[in-house]
Amino acid sequence: MEDATVLWEQEAGVAIVTLNRPEVLNAFNDRMAEELLDALRRAERDPEVRCLVLTGAGRAFCSGQDLRERAGGGFSYAQHVRARYVPVIAKIQALEKPVVAAVNGVAAGAGASLALACDLRVAAEEASFLQAFARIGLVPDSGATYFLPRMVGLAKAFELCYLAEPLPAPEAARLGLVNWVVPGAQVLAKAKEVAGRLAAGPTRAYGMTKRALYRNLRADLLDALDYEAMLQEAAGRTEDHREGVQAFLEKRPPRFVGR
Ligand code: T3D
What we know:
Helices cover 46% and strands 16% of the residues. It is of the alpha/beta class. The chain folds into two domains: 6-199, 2-enoyl-CoA Hydratase, Chain A, domain 1, CATH 3.90.226.10; 203-250, Lyase 2-enoyl-coa Hydratase, Chain  A, domain 2 (Orthogonal Bundle). Strands 1-2-3-5-7-10 form a six-stranded mixed sheet, sandwiched between helices. Strands 4-6-8-9 form a four-stranded mixed sheet. Helix 8 (203-215) runs antiparallel to helix 9. The N and C termini lie far apart (39 Å). Residues 24-25, 27, 63-68, 70, 77, 80-81, 106, 108-110, 130, 132-133, 135-136, 138, 141 line the site of ligand T3D.
């Protein structure tokens, strides 16, 4: 049997999902897109998984669409993007659990979009983000035009998309696109450390926080305030909320169970 294009490991509430086509810098073929979506669904279903780390095997995070599959013609780009990339990006956004990208190396094209779609990014010092699309006469997809201007501002987004030069991780951190930059050998360990902390947190409150942050990007203030109140009603009924308050009153750390 062919090797899996996406690997799954699970440790103490954290699922580590690794893109596994290192010979092409983890470029997406159809199979890898399907297997990644399966892994995201598994993370969604499994109550033992309370945080997800997404990373790449070898020296890259992900180089976007496998361009060896793009020689020739007679192919619908719209259909392909909708069938393969949109479900993955939408699932990461809809997943009510924290998702941390461990960007171990270059993230290019849809691979950069994939990293941007995660909630947090830990990047290796030598990693970079490349809006590779213009280099091959395509437009940024898989959420790049949504995430980039929100994270770095419109002027920088234009520069990155038009000039298609690699953005080194330290500069990406300065711009607010990356949360932590660490030496390459430590990137997975740092991501696991962050993920471990999140996996021990109030999972349902995190899930609702994610919903509110995304939803309220499009809201006016009164609408955002009301949505927060509605979610607070649900968060206030969780076991983790009761435990958090009890722990505060007893002057001890909380033991959140994710319910
Ligand atoms: O098609 C649709 O459905 C539309 C959707 C599009 C979404 C997209 O993602 S479009 C953008 C596609 N991606 C790219 O254009 C990036 C292509 N790759 C690169 O520009 C460079 O490889 C990198 C800047 C990412 C890294 O450069 P470097 O010098 O570190 O590595 P390399 O030597 O270029 O690559 C190493 C190997 O990986 C090489 O194979 P070889 O020669 O050792 O056999 C290279 O061909 C292969 N590789 C890298 N990226 C891809 C790839 N093979 C197929 N597809 C790739 N995307």
